[in-house]
Structures are given as C-alpha cells and as structure tokens.
Amino acid sequence: MYVEVIATHQQVSKDDLEGKFVVVIDTLRATSTIVTALANGCQQVFPVATCNEAKVLSTSWEADRVLLGAEKRGHPIPGFPMGNSPRSFTPDKVAGKTLFLVTTNGTVALQKAHSASSVVLGALLNGQRVAEYIVEQEPEEVVMLCAGTQGHFSMEDVISAGKIMGHIWDRRTASANELAIAAFQLYQVNRDQLVPLMAQTAHGQSLLAQGDGDDLDFCLQEDLFPVVPQQTLSRVRLLAGYGRNSPYGQKENSGSCGISWHGSLGNA
Ligand SMILES: O=C(O)[C@H](CS(=O)(=O)O)OP(=O)(O)O
Q1: Helices 155-171 and 178-190: crossing angle, nearest 10°?
Q2: Domain count, the chain
C-alpha cells in the first residue's frame, strides 16, 4: 500500500483522482460536520459547491425532510439555517433528514473527488475507524486529500491525516509520501496538545474570532464517532457495517474520546 497526503485540493485535478481510493479531510469543519450529522441520524448528505445548486437540488425532496447548511469564509448565509457548525447537527435536528451542505473548502474538495473509485470522509472524530476501513479494503494506493483553507495548508487537516497514517502503520506496513511522514510526526508530537496548537492556527483564530471556539474543541475530539461516511456519486451516507449502530461501532464507541495508540513506522 502506498499512501499519499496532499495538502490542498487545489493541488490536484479531478483527473488526478480518477479511479483512486480517496479520503477527503476537512477537520475544520466540513468533514467533522458531515461525520457528526450522519452519526446523529442524518440519512444522507449532498456536499455541494454553491448555494444555488443546493437550493435547486433540494427541491426534489419533501421540504420537511430537507436541511440546508452553508457558510462562506466562515460567515452564515441567509436561507441556510444550519450553517457549518458540527455542534448544531444534533439528533433532534438531523434524524432522518437529507442535508445539502455548502462550505468554502470541504464540499468543493468532495465534489472534486467525484472521479475517484472510492471516497470516504475523514476527521479526527472518526480517524481510527477510517484507518481500519482502509486496512480492511487494502487498496494499492490511498490519497488523503486535505481540503486546506482557500488554497493554503491547514494544520488541522494534515494532523488528521497523520493520525490516520499512524493507525494504518499500527496495523500494516505501507509506504508513504513525505507529507504523510511529516503528518504522522506532527500528530505524534502534538496529539496531547491539539487544542492549544490549533488555537494558534489561522483557522483556529478565525473560529475563535467569530465566536465558534467551541467548534474547535468539538472537532479536535478523537474517535468520538466510529463511523465511515462514504460518498457515492454525489451523496454521502454511512457505510453499511461501519455506522454508529453497527455492532462494531457500538463496541468501539465506549464513551472514551481518547485513543490508546503506540504505533511504529511500517516498512515500505
Ligand atoms: O466552515 C469553516 O470553518 C470553513 C470556512 S473558512 O475556511 O473559514 O473559509 O469552511 P470549510 O469548507 O469547512 O473548511
């Protein structure tokens, strides 16, 4: 297995991802939000790039089954009551609903991955379960596509990739590109201080400035939701057998948000 971490979705084209096994990561906040919504009972999510697209697509569903969520550069959008705060996607709001979500970076990265053969969504909230799924599937090549922030490297996405890399290496050998190795090291060194570290980053600072500091704490919890969301065509659902209510998921979701991991570098 070869694992490649890519720092921003702007570094790849749809063609580059064609036929690949891709993990899209946008820890602050799109993939954390989608993981949370699905784990809390949302039926399915359509990540879309524009508000217009979300409105047009949503008209095909019964109005009382639809949720509209959107933000642009961290700001709420009129007509999209759900925003992009994972903490607002509680079971009472999302159970049985179809969510159309528009965000600045994450949903654009997810749309770019439409050409991939398999697309799963990763975050710190579900990183270990995603790694287990990758190991079980044994793809020859894995691309961890970090959404980044407006074309720039995002520490939180790369650290999440490093966590997933570590869980893969804990279970099997795999070769990796240099960013994957760096991501692994970054996670290892900082795993006990994620909140203060992320509070220094550009995205952390902007969340704090807009009053969403609690999202930072929420999104930096590890393995709160042992689920694997999978994007098929344009829709994201929990992978059967890897959902919150699977026996596997229940067993793992023992209430601890922390992990116990003592991985070592695998051989190429
Ligand atoms: O909602 C977010 O936190 C970001 C907005 S931005 O990066 O601050 O512009 O969107 P996302 O697509 O989830 O990275």
Answers
A1: 100
A2: 1
Q: Residue 83, exposed/middle/buried by CB under 10 A (0-12, 13-18, 19+)? A: buried
Distance (Å) from CA 147 to ligand 1 centroid: 9
Residues 141-187 pLDDT 10s:
999 999 999 999 999 999 999 999 999 999 999 999 999 999 999 99
In the chain, the amino acid numbered 159 is: I
CATH number of the domain to which 113 belongs = 3.90.1560.10
Range of the domain at 47: 2-234
For residue 73, the ligand 1 atom closest to its alpha carbon is 9
Q: Which of 105, 110, 121 to mutate to test the pocket of ligand 1 (most atoms within 8 A of CB)?
A: 105
| pTM, entire model | 0.91
Q: Which atom of ligand 1 is nearest to the CA of 29?
A: 13
Residue 54 lies in a domain: yes
